[in-house]
Give the backbone structure.
Amino acid sequence: MEKWSLMTIAVLLALTVRWAVSLGSYSGAGKPPMYGDYEAQRHWQEITYNLPIRQWYFNTSDNNLLYWGLDYPPLTAYHSFVCAYIAKLINPDWVALHTSRGYESQPHKLFMRTTVFVADLLVYIPAVILYCFSLKETSAKKKASTCALCILLYPGLILIDHGHFQYPLSLGLALWAVLCLSHDWDLLGSMAFCLALNYKQMELYHSLPFFCYLLGKCFKKGLKGKGLVLLAKLAGTVLVSFAACWLPFGTDVEQIMQVLRRLFPIDRGLFEACMFSSPTHCPDKVANIWCSLSVLIKIKNVISPRTQLKLSFAVTFLSLLPACIKLTVQPSLRGFKFALVSCALSFFLFSFQVHEKSILLVSLPVCLIINEIPFMATWFLLVSTFSLLPLLLKDELLLPYAVTAPAFLAVCLASFSILEKTSAEDLQLKAFSLKGYMSWFKSFPRIVRSLFLLSLSLMGVLSVLSAALPPPQRLPDLFPLAVAVVSCLHFLLFLVYFNIVILWDSKNRGQKKIS
Amino acid sequence: RAMAAGGRGWFRALALGVSFLKCLLIPAYYSTDFEVHRNWLAITHNLPLSQWYYEATSEWTLDYPPFFAWFEYVLSHIAKYFDPQMLVVENLNYASRATIFFQRLSVIFTDTLFIYAVHECCRCVNGKRAAKDILEKPTFILAVLLLWNFGLLIVDHIHFQYNGFLFGLMLLSVARLCQKRYLEGALLFAVLLHFKHIYVYVAPAYGIYLLRSYCFTANNADGSLKWRSFSVLHVTLLGLIVCLVSALSLGPFLVLGQLPQVMSRLFPFKRGLCHAYWAPNFWALYNAMDKALTILGLKCNFLDGTKIPKASMTGGLVQEFQHTVLPSVTPLATLICTFIAILPSVFCLWFKPQGPRGFLQCLVLCALSSFMFGWHVHEKAILLAILPLSLLSIQRAKDAGIYLILATTGHFSLFPLLFTTPELPIKILLMLLFTVYSFSSLKSLFRREKPLLNWLETIYLILLVPLEIFCEIIFPLTPWKRHFPFVPLLLTSVYCALGITYAWLKLYVSVLTERIPVRQKAE
């Protein structure tokens, strides 16, 4: 079959799954008074449509910031405005000021789902398709479409976007940026990344590798000649795109400061407590290091928020450093993708105010290297989906979770036969393993495989338990916490692994080329 | 897309994949058939056998043969662990989450039989065509065409019915006949008939084929029948099987003296010629012609407007359809038409035996002919022709062309089954998925032969796209929607009727002209 028809089939399948998931429930469905992310998006439409742009980020009588106030950068607000405009055409009640609060109905759900679907179809999916076609290994024409199928069927993103409710625009734009960089269109790439950053500030997780990669590229070209020109051009592009996005707010400094305060409310706590969605108890259990440590010590009680901030900053910085330095010194596309993974993962694990959905920022670059290290990528993607389980359970998305996660595993098994790719070479650990322990590494593939199966069964059992059993009365958060700790341990190992791959990488490659 | 090395890994991946998709569709819209089956669960669970075919609390009385009732009986004993409330006869339109979950899962699980049957069918197809690419293997294509069949997916897993395992039985019996395990095949088909009697449409093909290839054990050298090879033993065995199965199914009701009641439930000729939504068959064209003539007559004053019954103008919405110009059609007339339409194919099977292939052709023709001329045909019945035709389509380019026309129009004609807006993208996406796959895979399979479709057929199929856009998107926005709500259904069914009639004729011509061209004149 032709490669285009294969790709069409892969995309159609992915779209079908997306729409089928979107038939289910969404975040905060029928849960007054605060509802969930769905209501947040609807509320932003209401705000942006009815209020003048100067009031969007300010607390006024018409804009109660405690009720889902805008806390994303301007592009999100513009997007909401466009959606609101269409909503107004269909049914003005959906975005009426004040009275539309908590509006829920079947047609409205259909409308909201369609907006996500369209955003996905226009931004994220084309980027994935083009990315897969641009992969080097496309000599076997199937490869591109299988790759695309695996990336597009990644359950975490589908469940969060089309189930929980969120727009895939920032990730899509980041993907466009990676795509442009891999085609050496550095200016377009940095513009796309600026747009992504201006859609969601969480994209900062990806900013360091972008910065280091482009900087390294400039160094490589020689900082006195071409490199300087490129650097100047890049800086110009970034400035212009930021200015374009913030233009309506540029009228006075107070506006900009207020937006920034909304974007980075550093007084919230070390790991994002769900301040809004559940008023009674239960801070969300995020699978990062701070939340897992809190099982042992209550950090909140020991250290002041200021010190917390400093501590997390220091740890994050330290964990980022090796990958970033390596990338700056030896900028390569492959290293760039791996650095995206490890930096985002460091941020997720160690930084301040993390939401469990942020794991998607790590998953996206992992998707990009799924054809290079299919085994590890699949494993990681499954763990990341698993780490979202408590959130999905709250949104009553258990069924789509229970279906899409095994389906994803099946697709990866079928298309990459991952279980046969567990040797040190397949895991890109050849360079590392050459250091000596040859005898030990003989049984390495088997050990890795059994570890994988063990972790799968652990996740399966925990999923079943948290879905089926009511938690014991004294420990209401037992299962979410267990899920968080288990995923966190996985993520730590993955962080170590990715850093090893990055740091031991190109020497070996260079040798190969010479020989 | 499964590339799992070697063996049947890809088959498992395909089956698993489609099962996951089915599970995702659990929260989707379901039709009144959901309540029908819930009611049958309740009836068979609570009432004694003697009441099954008399109970009429709900309007959805039991109108499938006894084996299906027993099937519901068995299911009901699992259902009580999910939600006992669904087993109360008086709980009309009861649909708790557990009920939905249970019913949907029961369809998905019974589909295992279908998956097994497809597996067996794939083994029957000779995979001699050496394809280095798994995606171009005929068996792989066949497995996708059957397992991922669009019609089956939306009818069973969205609309809600149990066609999966029934078609599984049918395909399994076909596979057994292909493997020359005749008795097993006959047994399976007999059982199938007592599950759902609509399969009686294809019974002539089974009867003649078994008679010709099993009861007569040898042929003459020129392929004609050797009368002396008649085997009494084989006939007795066949007869025994059929009688035993029938006795098992209908026997209890015969003893109770309820057979007439059962029969009246199974064959409700009181319903109209066409279903509420006209199935795209000959009668749809006939009705449309009648309507066109009526309008023409009114325009030219040949007809008196006051004498025309009012209901006739809302055709497509009411079941009873009064013809105004053309003669009205009686059940007997449709029976005769069907019989005449089936006859040549059966003759063909008898006089030009071609083994399993001839049998399959005859089976498809029987199904299609009954669909074309039957009384009160459901649009879903087209699957009875599409699924067996998939088996033929991967063997010959000519059949592949017919398959593409029939499958595309037939599946398109199922669209009105799902009329709710949230399911609109699902049905379009699934339809595109299946159509793109069937076209590209069959095209690559027969890429050395001439194009599968000629330009007229291509244009006809492409025009389905604007038709869909008009019916689902443009028409609801126009003011006609209030006065002529039936127009989209009418257009769809008439347009699809053209394609299906064409496919039927083309298949007939290709079967009749094969090998012995003289026979075509005899027709």
